[in-house]
Write a structure and sequence with these properties.
heterodimer; A: alpha+beta; 2 domains; 11 helices; B: mainly alpha; Rna Polymerase Sigma Factor, Chain: A; Arc Repressor Mutant, subunit A; 7 helices; globular; disordered C terminus
Chain lengths: ~280, ~190
């Protein structure tokens, strides 16, 4: 006991951290526990270290909610089909990490797949497309929300705030109980004026792909809302594929509405900061 | 039946979330983290022929990620820092009841991380976020275990001080002076 007490006196931050990290010998652990018992200050200090660890874990796990970068997934898919040598893969054209987000394709993986494989409806004058059933008055607010139809989004609707402020690729959980999640997918400039955002909504196993555009009158209008057969495909971010028969409609709508390219994340962030007042 | 190349690829895919969290902690920016992840995976694929069976793939990838980030830091020291004044906002989430998950708090944690020395940040990310042991970190960073231990504790104290100097006051009583405990700060 005397030895333990001697050890307990020598406790410092390094030992406390090592205790928290499970790195101490049995004897040293016992010494720390004795010190905790005897000294509220030691206990308090340990709690502070523990709190900061929890905060770090929580902060840096938020990135798990974002889809994996398309570039990484496609690189791995290509590699599995045909392993490449250094010259073939990188050569002089290797991806350089420039810290500006320029090398990552911000367009969603599934929309790239669609663009590559489908050319239906291109050039058709899509006005408003509505492929989901009207909400039933007996449904819960979350289900109704998930079935946001075409038309004006009122400012008091949570969706308005999400389209105004949430970056593409980051999901917003609106209801834990019904797993209602909204995920802006991408932003693009609309031909003529204004900007549009594509976004996904899932709730209770149902899902929609949508496009809303923001006009000069500062309102968001859902132009297209398409029910998706298997919304799990756009929840995980990994291995998303274009399988739904309705996805060509979204793709065609984007082609119809878009002017130029999809905005990169910096341009989108700038627009959000400027409250979409760029024209 | 998958061949060995596909199995190796699948293992990398399963490690992507961990690798990206590590990249996020190093860069403190989700955009930079995705870029760093991509550069890391690309380098790993190019080194496929050099990968020796029996090597821990996760540690191998973390080492590539760490070295890529160090190269980037050196490059930025020449070029100057990348200014991304609103970046932290993109890391934030909203919960089910549309209450903000203490945006300010998350942003300040990230700012505190930025204030650390690069190696402190790496050690903190490896141990606290990814759960590597001191021994594993000492091998990956090629430094003694004692150095891992002291740098980790200093990193935690530096972060706590930084946060306490900020607006959030995460640790009450507010603005407590979190000095080194049991020994003088160096």
């Amino acid at each position: 006991m005397k030895i333990l007490e001697d050890l307990a006196v020598k406790i410092n931050d390094e030992i406390l951290c090592a205790y928290l990290d499970g790195e101490l010998s049995k004897e040293n652990r016992a010494a720390v526990e004795l010190a905790i018992e005897k000294s509220p200050e030691v206990l308090k200090r340990l709690e502070v270290f523990n709190n900061i660890d929890d905060l770090f874990a929580k902060t840096y796990r938020t990135i798990d909610d974002k889809p994996m970068p398309d570039g990484v997934l496609s690189m791995l898919q290509t590699f599995s089909q045909k392993p490449l040598t250094e010259n073939q893969l990188g050569g002089g054209n290797q991806h350089s990490f420039d810290g500006n987000g320029s090398a990552v394709n911000k367009k969603s993986f599934w929309s790239v797949a669609i663009a590559a494989s489908i050319a239906l409806l291109i050039g058709i004058g899509i006005d408003r497309v509505f492929l989901i059933s009207k909400p039933n008055v007996n449904q819960t607010p979350e289900i109704i929300f998930a079935q946001q139809t075409v038309g004006v989004i009122e400012p008091e609707n949570a969706l308005f705030d999400i389209l105004e402020k949430q970056p593409s690729g980051s999901s917003v959980i609106l209801s834990q109980s019904t797993s209602t999640i909204v995920t802006p997918v991408m932003t693009f400039k609309k031909g003529g004026s204004g900007y549009c955002r594509e976004f996904n909504i899932t709730s209770l196993g149902e899902g929609t792909k949508n496009i809303a555009c923001r006009g000069g009158n500062n309102v968001w209008v859902v132009e297209v809302a398409v029910k998706v057969d298997d919304p799990s495909l756009f929840v995980s971010g990994l291995y998303q594929t274009a399988t739904s028969q309705n996805e060509p409609i979204i793709d065609a709508a984007v082609r119809h509405l878009i002017e130029g390219d999809v905005l990169n994340i910096d341009a989108e962030a700038f627009l959000i900061r400027k409250k979409w007042q760029m024209d | 039946m998958k061949n060995s190349t596909e199995r190796w690829r699948d293992e990398i895919v399963s490690l992507l979330p961990r690798l990206r969290r590590f990249a996020f902690a190093l860069t403190t920016s989700s955009t930079d983290a995705d870029d760093l992840l991509q550069a890391t995976v690309e380098k790993a694929l190019m080194k496929y022929q050099q990968f020796e069976s029996g090597t821990d793939l996760d540690k191998w990838l973390f080492r590539i990620c760490k070295n890529t980030w160090i190269d980037e830091i050196r490059s930025r020291q020449v070029r100057g820092p990348v200014v991304d004044p609103i970046d932290y906002k993109s890391e934030l989430q909203i919960d089910g009841e549309k209450i903000l998950i203490n945006k300010l708090q998350l942003a300040e944690v990230n700012n505190a991380m930025k204030s650390l020395q690069d190696e402190q940040r790496m050690i903190l990310a490896m141990v606290v976020i990814e759960g590597y042991s001191y021994k594993e970190v000492s091998v990956m960073l090629n430094i003694p275990i004692g150095t891992v231990m002291s740098r980790l504790s200093r990193a935690r104290i530096a972060v706590i001080k930084e946060i306490n100097d900020g607006k959030t006051k995460l640790f009450n009583p507010a603005n407590e002076d979190f000095r080194g405990f049991g020994r003088e700060d160096k």
